[in-house]
Design goal:
Length: 358
Amino acid sequence: MITNDRFLKACRKQPVDRLPVWYMRQAGRYDPEYRKIKEKYSLLEICLQPELAAEVTLMPVRKLGVDAAILYSDIMNPVASLGIDFDIVPNVGPVIANPIRSTQDIDNLRPIDVEGDLSHVLKTIEILDRELEVPLISFAGAPFTIASYLIEGRPSKNYIRTKELMYSEPEVWHRLMDKLGDMVITYLKAHVASGAKAVQLFDSWVGALSPNDFKQYVRPVIERIFKELSHLAEPKIYFPGVSSGELLPTIIDLQAEVIGLDWRLSISEGRRRLDNRFAVQGNLDPLVLTAPMSVIKEQAKAIMDEGMLKPGYIFNLGHGLFPEASLEKLKELTEYVHDYSSSVLNPSAKEVNSNVQA
Ligand code: CP3
């Protein structure tokens, strides 16, 4: 049962007594216990075992004291149900056996069958719904980001084939966006029906597009996804990934509650570009975690000071945690975010505490 709903309150721009915090990629290789499990099983093998996937989801919640859990899975997992053969290769990322190159390849994609092919994901969510005291965020990869893997066949620096298809065969491109959009909508609705309390759409690489290209080639499907999910009471988060600051003014009408920001923009500037319509989440540069604790705290404080100027702020990183991050520093950062934000948002609680101690 959920006993800590600060994350959900902040998503809805409701007041909180201290800031909620979670970290993108909070389950991962920075944790020695996770690395031990990975010696035995691959990411996909963990996901196929609901009890284990639930345990891996819970580990960072227990260790770091964060205010939300994120389902242990990968953005690529649902594409298996469309008939795509892929692997997650350690230290590389998603690798596709037969990258999508033709109209025929796109026409061959099957509609997602969540209950048939991905029941292990729903089982994992059901277990977590019973065990968690903080809300569970489930997620999907957004159509552009997924398409970039399907078309390039592996992680890419400049998305050359993806953009080539987009510019040279726009009708085919939109058909692919629509199929991936349908996948996301069906997948996330099933997650919520199984107990997810919020959903995040990861569009990690869409910042590679100019605002005009984003509007023309990608925004229609993003709008449709959030419109079709808008009847759900659970908060919806759009993370337009890295270097997406220039795209923010183009998404102010999105039917989402929260927008994730990367670190190239301050929280206040992000809110301004979003016309103050959303709660915001972010945006410490994950690599700041390589710094001494005093520097990490100084940067986190500056971000929180802006975040707390208005209701609707969730502390997070501007992108995912990297394997070299330190569990100890993350623990200390989480405590610091809680303590510092509580001293600002709920100063009387601190006085009461210190009175009790005195
Ligand atoms: O955040 C979490 O803790 C939940 C789990 C999660 C994973 N992937 C597990 C994973 C989430 C939310 C994702 C999302 C994801 N996957 C994204 C969007 C977020 C982002 O970082 O922009 C993207 C682009 C992917 C695709 C992907 N999967 C990449 C680029 C990689 C990195 C390859 C590597 O080895 O560094 C993966 C692998 C992956 N997915 C790992 C984890 C924990 C690391 C490898 C592993 O532990 O097996």
